[in-house]
């Protein structure tokens, strides 16, 4: 008997009585979503910027290699999309668009349609995600409602920069992935 | 080695044991602070519990749904009855790919299956990429906590091992410096690896996708740079619907560390063009646990570690004292199902205070199951020493005369018993504890003397 058959037979043999699957109710959300979002992002060690603030930051910074898939900041792109993601190992700044965000925990949803390469938000040294104010929802239930049954090969909620507390519980930003996350709310 | 013996080793360094206790309690307090911001917290726990109960009650159906939908998405699904088969499947894929080095991100299942030694024996370099896991891999230790694998170590320990392995400055204990040294080291590994292995937090039957949650981004760094992604999951990691993730992702990180969510929550549905995605469904004793009605719902666990952070025994004895892949209260109800004899002391490593049950995000009645396991173990052990004393007690309570005499004897003997009897190795609870001061007379004597004085 194959392992599949033996595992399924072992479960079927228990003749378990089916227990009910609950429906998920609607819960109250924060009255001011932008404010709630900003607070949540700050506690995840990310920051909210305006379009203008980001433009100033990039102009005054020393970023060598910048890739933007957001049309709003296209003018800053100074490199081509590589064939293999490892060629982005020296990427200083990536700017991408997020579809929507959840105010309760600052998580932003991105999928293959936002990611020219799946590795971009992780391999870049610094990350900017652009979202629209009207695309901030209250909580994760509303976020999954927005995702619905869309059919992307990959999707991710990003809620902050890469971080760890594995050394004596001291919080350190920039473990493997992006060392900062800035969110521009348009 | 039994839990009390191992705990003694941990408690030798008193300052470190105190630090461990305090640090985990801080994590528990962070959890409390964050859940109080969610008015529907208790409702979410109840929903999560019901969703998991439902899934387990139809596990065969949902496993087949998962396989069907994942296969349609382009994922190659494998089934493994046990750890050996799980390892063989991975070994075979690596052989086909002629792969000699892999990167791996936090997976308690691969720890349970002893995948690392299996691969290393075959000349394959395994790099654990979670910072905590990399640290303990350097030290050739197992994780001592399922969310904070290196919580038993101090930064001076980590500085020493990094100096040896990564040539960091001797004596530099700055966590930022050490973390960034690990970042450089692991980035090279990520860029070279052709195959990446990850665990699975949740698999969704309806969509045939699975979710991996990390804060460091190590799972994503691994899989998006490699050509092949192998994900390993226990068959209990299933949930029915995509929208159920809304409930579980709200509970998981808040319960684990007090964060509102992990920073990276990746949903894998199909491989990038030209790449491969494998999913291994592992039993390894889970259907046996499912068959034990009293212990069935231990399979609802989502591995947040909250029961460890709150447990007065775990905090004061350390993860290694359990000697099992999953330590702490949840480990103490899962492990006896795997090997009753080997893990027979674990259900006794508890005060039965119930704090684990109170914090569990999927409402597993952990302390009640600990109590149930104690009874199973006592039955299995027959008339052990403990059993004998229980029988004696039983005799005393059924005879009023024996009870009266035994009280007098107890008060007399406890006063005169030499410490070597009270604090002997058979009585693990004598360690670090003092006996209460004894009253000079029994309640019965006191009542006789005083009842006429009113």
From TrEMBL, chain A:
<dbReference type="Pfam" id="PF02589">
    <property type="entry name" value="LUD_dom"/>
</dbReference>
<feature type="domain" description="LUD">
    <location>
        <begin position="87"/>
        <end position="186"/>
    </location>
</feature>
<dbReference type="InterPro" id="IPR024185">
    <property type="entry name" value="FTHF_cligase-like_sf"/>
</dbReference>
<dbReference type="InterPro" id="IPR037171">
    <property type="entry name" value="NagB/RpiA_transferase-like"/>
</dbReference>
<protein>
    <submittedName>
        <fullName>L-lactate dehydrogenase</fullName>
    </submittedName>
</protein>
<dbReference type="InterPro" id="IPR003741">
    <property type="entry name" value="LUD_dom"/>
</dbReference>
UniProtKB/TrEMBL annotation, chain B:
<keyword id="KW-0004">4Fe-4S</keyword>
<dbReference type="Pfam" id="PF02589">
    <property type="entry name" value="LUD_dom"/>
</dbReference>
<dbReference type="InterPro" id="IPR024569">
    <property type="entry name" value="LutB_C"/>
</dbReference>
<dbReference type="Pfam" id="PF11870">
    <property type="entry name" value="LutB_C"/>
</dbReference>
<feature type="domain" description="4Fe-4S ferredoxin-type">
    <location>
        <begin position="292"/>
        <end position="312"/>
    </location>
</feature>
<keyword id="KW-0249">Electron transport</keyword>
<dbReference type="GO" id="GO:0051539">
    <property type="term" value="F:4 iron, 4 sulfur cluster binding"/>
</dbReference>
<dbReference type="GO" id="GO:0006089">
    <property type="term" value="P:lactate metabolic process"/>
</dbReference>
<dbReference type="InterPro" id="IPR017900">
    <property type="entry name" value="4Fe4S_Fe_S_CS"/>
</dbReference>
<dbReference type="Pfam" id="PF13183">
    <property type="entry name" value="Fer4_8"/>
</dbReference>
<dbReference type="InterPro" id="IPR024185">
    <property type="entry name" value="FTHF_cligase-like_sf"/>
</dbReference>
<dbReference type="GO" id="GO:0046872">
    <property type="term" value="F:metal ion binding"/>
</dbReference>
<dbReference type="InterPro" id="IPR017896">
    <property type="entry name" value="4Fe4S_Fe-S-bd"/>
</dbReference>
<keyword id="KW-0408">Iron</keyword>
<dbReference type="InterPro" id="IPR004452">
    <property type="entry name" value="LutB/LldF"/>
</dbReference>
<dbReference type="InterPro" id="IPR037171">
    <property type="entry name" value="NagB/RpiA_transferase-like"/>
</dbReference>
<keyword id="KW-0677">Repeat</keyword>
<protein>
    <submittedName>
        <fullName>L-lactate dehydrogenase complex protein LldF</fullName>
    </submittedName>
</protein>
<keyword id="KW-0479">Metal-binding</keyword>
<dbReference type="InterPro" id="IPR003741">
    <property type="entry name" value="LUD_dom"/>
</dbReference>
<dbReference type="InterPro" id="IPR009051">
    <property type="entry name" value="Helical_ferredxn"/>
</dbReference>
<keyword id="KW-0411">Iron-sulfur</keyword>
């Amino acid at each position: 008997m194959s392992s599949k058959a033996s595992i399924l037979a072992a479960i079927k043999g228990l003749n378990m009585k089916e227990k009910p699957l609950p429906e998920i109710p609607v819960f109250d959300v924060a009255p001011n979503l932008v404010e709630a979002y900003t607070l949540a992002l700050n506690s995840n060690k990310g920051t909210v910027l305006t379009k203008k603030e980001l433009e100033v930051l990039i102009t005054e910074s020393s970023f060598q290699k910048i890739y933007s898939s957001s049309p709003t900041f296209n003018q800053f792109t100074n490199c081509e999309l590589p064939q293999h993601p490892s060629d982005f190992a020296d990427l200083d700044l990536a700017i991408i668009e997020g579809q929507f965000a959840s105010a309760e925990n600052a998580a932003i949803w991105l999928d293959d349609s936002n990611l020219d390469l799946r590795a971009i938000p992780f391999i870049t040294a610094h990350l900017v995600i652009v979202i629209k104010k009207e695309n901030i929802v209250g909580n994760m239930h509303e976020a999954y409602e927005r995702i619905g049954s869309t059919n992307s090969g990959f999707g991710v909620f990003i809620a902050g920069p890469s971080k760890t507390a594995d050394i004596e519980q001291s919080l350190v930003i920039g473990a493997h992935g992006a060392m900062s996350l800035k969110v521009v709310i348009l | 080695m039994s839990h009390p013996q191992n705990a003694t080793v941990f408690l030798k360094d008193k300052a470190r044991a105190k630090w461990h206790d305090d640090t985990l309690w801080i994590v528990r307090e962070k959890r409390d602070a964050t859940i109080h911001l969610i008015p529907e917290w208790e409702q979410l726990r109840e929903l999560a519990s019901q969703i998991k109960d439902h899934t387990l009650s139809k596990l065969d159906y949902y496993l087949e749904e998962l396989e069907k939908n994942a296969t349609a998405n382009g994922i190659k699904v494998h089934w493994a009855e046990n750890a050996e088969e799980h390892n063989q499947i991975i070994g075979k894929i690596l052989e086909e790919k002629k792969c000699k080095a892999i990167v791996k991100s936090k997976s308690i299942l691969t720890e349970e299956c002893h995948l690392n030694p299996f691969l290393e024996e075959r000349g394959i370099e395994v790099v654990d990429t979670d910072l905590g896991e990399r640290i303990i891999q350097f030290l050739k230790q197992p994780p001592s906590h399922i969310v904070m694998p290196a919580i038993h170590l101090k930064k001076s320990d980590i500085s020493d091992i990094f100096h040896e392995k990564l040539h960091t400055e001797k004596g530099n204990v700055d966590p930022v410096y050490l973390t960034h040294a690990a970042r450089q080291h692991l980035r090279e590994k990520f860029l070279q690896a052709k195959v990446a292995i990850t665990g699975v937090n949740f698999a969704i039957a309806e969509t045939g996708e699975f979710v991996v949650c990390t804060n460091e981004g190590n799972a994503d760094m691994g899989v998006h740079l490699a050509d092949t992604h192998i994900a390993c999951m226990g068959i209990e990691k299933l949930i029915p619907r995509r929208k159920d993730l809304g409930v579980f992702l709200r509970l998981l990180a808040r319960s684990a560390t007090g964060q509102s969510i992990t920073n990276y929550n990746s949903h894998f549905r199909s491989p990038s063009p030209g790449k491969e995605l494998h999913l291994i469904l592992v039993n390894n004793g889970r259907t046996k646990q499912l068959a034990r009605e009293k212990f069935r719902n231990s399979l609802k666990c989502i591995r947040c570690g909250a029961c460890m952070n709150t447990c007065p025994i775990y905090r004061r004895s350390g993860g290694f004292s359990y000697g099992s892949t999953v330590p702490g209260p949840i480990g103490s109800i899962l492990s006896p199902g795997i090997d009753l004899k080997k893990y027979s002391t674990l259900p006794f490593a508890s005060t039965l205070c119930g704090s684990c049950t109170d914090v569990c995000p999927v409402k597993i009645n952990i302390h009640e199951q600990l109590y149930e396991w104690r009874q199973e173990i006592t039955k299995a052990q027959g008339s052990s020493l403990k059993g004998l004393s229980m029988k004696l007690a039983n005799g005393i309570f059924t005879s009023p005369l024996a009870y009266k005499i035994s009280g007098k004897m107890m008060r007399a003997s406890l006063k005169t018993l030499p410490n070597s009897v009270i604090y002997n190795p058979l009585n693990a609870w004598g360690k670090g504890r003092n006996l209460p001061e004894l009253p000079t007379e029994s309640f019965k004597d006191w009542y006789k003397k005083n009842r006429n004085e009113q």
